Amino acid sequence: MSGEKLKVGVLISGRGSNLQALINAASVADFPAKIVLVISNVADAQGLARAQAAAIETAVIEHKNFTSRERFDDAVDKALRDAGAELVCLAGFMRILSDPFVRKWEGRLINIHPSLLPAFKGTHVHEQVIAARVKTSGCTVHYVVPELDSGPIIAQAEVPVVGGDTPETLAARVLETEHKLYPMALRWIAEGRVRLENGQVLLGGR
Ligand code: GRF
User: How close is the Cα of 111 to the center of ligand 1, in Å?
Assistant: First the structure.
């Protein structure tokens, strides 16, 4: 079946625990997607070692070596195309991608965000959630569009906020759920169950 698997590129900047969840899912024979390349913009990102341990090709493309965001994005785009990637998963990738890159990959570029979007966009998400005193948080897998954290939502999962939570305890609880949601969403896409119509995600059966 490996010839039919959806070829996925993953972009990371750090720890790579979501990458690990995708690697683990993809290691099961019947998983319909295969990670063909992991790119990091940070040379010592922990996620690179995770990919290497799973014998997945890696590339370090450091943004600081490029004179503009567009040139950096072009290098990332070329590496993804050379690897034959058909879908790109952002997994803790801490760079804003330029509009031309996002448009080129629109409908084939997804991200995981640690809140129930459209609430709590941006950074310091768990701090925002605790300050707002909401009782429920969660995570969202969504298509990426030029506007940050605003693309069509593919899947969401709720996580309770409990008394005494700190950003760290809440982040850890949300992260456990991220590790289930991201592989599930990737599976749905690879199985052709996710349709994007007029900026809205429609989920179909198998
Ligand atoms: C995750 O919380 C993810 O939702 C956010 O960045 C974090 C990355 O963590 N986009 P990791 O590198 O996958 O461990």
Answer: 10
Per-residue tens of pLDDT for the chain, all 206 residues: 445 999 999 999 999 999 999 999 999 999 999 999 999 999 999 999 999 999 999 999 999 999 999 999 999 999 999 999 999 999 999 999 999 999 999 999 999 999 999 999 999 999 999 999 999 999 999 999 999 999 999 999 999 999 999 999 999 999 999 999 999 999 999 999 999 999 999 999 76
| CA-based nearest residue to 72, from 82, 60, 56, 84 | 60
pTM for this prediction: 0.96
CATH number for the domain harbouring residue 13: 3.40.50.170
Ligand 1 atom having least distance to the Cα of 21: 13
Domain ranges, residue 19 = 6-196
**Measured in angstroms, how far is the CA atom of residue 14 from the centroid of ligand 1?**
8
Nearest C-alpha to atom 8 of ligand 1 is from which residue? 92
Rg (CA), the chain: 17
Q: Domain for residue 205, yes or no? A: no
- Concatenating the DSSP letter of every residue in 116-158 gives -TTSS-SSSHHHHHHHHT-SEEEEEEEE--SSTT-SPEEEEEE
Count of domains for the chain: 1
113 belongs to the catalytic site: yes
